[in-house]
Please model this.
Amino acid sequence: MDRTVVAYVIYLLVSVALTVWVARTLSRNGRVFLADVLHGNEKLAEAVNHLLVVGFYLVNLGFVALYLGDDETITDTRGVFEALSTKLGVVLLVLGVMHLGNVYVLSRIRRRGVMEREQVPPVAPQGWAAPTAGA
Model:
């Protein structure tokens, strides 16, 4: 088998496995965070979590597929490792950027929700007080 094909197969296996692992980790650990962001609405949190995971898969697997091709022919074992390290390094960077982007957006949503909760008075108004003349 051609070394270039071997490198492609290894690249695809490792990239897809990494993408699935990161998506599952984000999904599992993001449920609680999303429930807090969405004020305890578990059903909505689960739906948003699922949509985020699908988008994560589409973007990352699309990138993995587009980044598969290479104009260089790999002639030796060293070339296999060099090609794999470059390709997998870029995939890991993209996964990291996607993760940080998700966390940033969710933290902004959470911050907005916390600010909205703080604007509600702790006790409902009991009545109206007329201004005094001396004040």
The mean pLDDT is 84. The radius of gyration is 25 Å. Residues 129 and 135 are 13 Å apart (CA to CA).
